[in-house]
Amino acid sequence: QVQLVESGGGLVQAGGSLRLSCAASGSIFSPNAMGWYRQAPGKQRELVATITSGANTNYADSVKGRFTISRDNAKNTVYLQMNSLKPEDTAVYYCTIRPIPAIYGMIYWGKGSPVTVSS
């Protein structure tokens, strides 16, 4: 089993910055992809960004140019640096990890970290 623990969420003003961290532990498979999803009240969960063990990244259009995903493979930790935050970024952010190549249904989730951006 794999455990994911997020940290760094909180309240921030619009235009500000916040950095989320997620540490994975347990039976971690390699190579893998780690990433962040988010879900706002009344909205569907959406993929924010992903990063592979080889540091290939993908971003949702809504965060491109503002957010940066990175990772420390030695620490099995993924980060999400969020700059120029907007109220619409308010959501619960979930950390994920999956194997590469992907196996259908095999994805692990953290418990989520709330991020609130005030206007």
Order of H and E elements: EEEEEEEEEEE
Terminal residue distance: 40 Å
Count every beta strand, where a strand is a DSSP E run of 2 or more residues: 11
The coarse silhouette is: globular
Overall structural class, as computed from helix and strand content, comes to mainly beta
Q: What is the strand content? A: over 45%
- Average per-residue pLDDT, rounded, comes to 97
Largest sheet: 7 strands, mixed
Number of helices: 0
The poorly predicted ranges are none
Helix content: under 10%
Radius of gyration equals 14 Å
Detailed description of the structure:
The model has no long low-confidence stretch (mean pLDDT 97). The protein contains no helices and 11 strands. A hairpin with an 8-residue loop joins strand 9 and strand 10. The termini are far apart. The radius of gyration is 14 Å and the shape is globular. It is an all-beta fold and 119 residues long. The strands form 2 sheets. Strands 2, 4, 5, 6, 9, 10 and 11 form a 7-stranded mixed sheet that branches. A 4-stranded antiparallel sheet has the order 1-3-8-7, with no helix packed on it. It has strands spanning 2-7, 10-13, 18-26, 32-39, 46-52, 57-59, 67-72, 77-82, 91-99, 108-109, 113-118.
